[in-house]
Write a structure and sequence with these properties.
By secondary structure, this protein is mostly helical. Helices cover 72% and strands 0% of the residues. Helix 1 crosses helix 2, helix 1 packs across helix 5 and helix 2 packs antiparallel against helix 5.
């Protein structure tokens, strides 16, 4: 396996940005580096190649991950995004993204409708990116 450690900081940043739309907090970047190492060690050379191609081309990781999950492709991206979500949940500044502090049927229904539309859009975009063959 080639040494990919020089890509880890950019990788952590790209995953966090795809999930949360902002820069990764330094403490989370630090915590994510060993996770990258462990997941890479368990991945096949083909998984690593497909995954790092997506990272290096700065593809829409959110769209690729959703399409990859639907098609069974890019499993390393799915595992890393799941790990990032789990770690990000531990930061106090991310709690509003995980905990609903208000109760409103209308707001809940609107949020679910937006999430469904966003997921469809991202799924279509991701399938289009996968179809091109450049990302696994």
């Amino acid at each position: 396996m080639p040494n990919l450690q020089h890509l880890y900081p950019a990788e952590a940043s790209a995953i966090y940005r795809a999930l949360f739309g902002r820069d990764i907090p330094p403490i989370l970047a630090q915590r994510f580096l060993p996770v990258i190492e462990r997941l890479n060690a368990a991945a096949s050379p083909a998984e690593l190649a497909d995954y790092y191609r997506a990272i290096e081309t700065q593809a829409d990781l959110e769209a690729l991950e959703l399409a990859g999950r639907l098609t069974g492709r890019l499993p390393l991206l799915t595992r890393k995004m799941q790990a990032m979500v789990t770690l990000a949940e531990t930061l106090p500044e991310n709690q509003p993204l995980y905990v609903n502090r208000r109760s409103s049927f209308l707001a809940g229904a609107a949020a679910m409708a937006w999430a469904a539309a966003h997921s469809v859009r991202q799924g279509v975009k991701g399938l289009w990116l996968l179809r091109g063959g450049a990302h696994g």
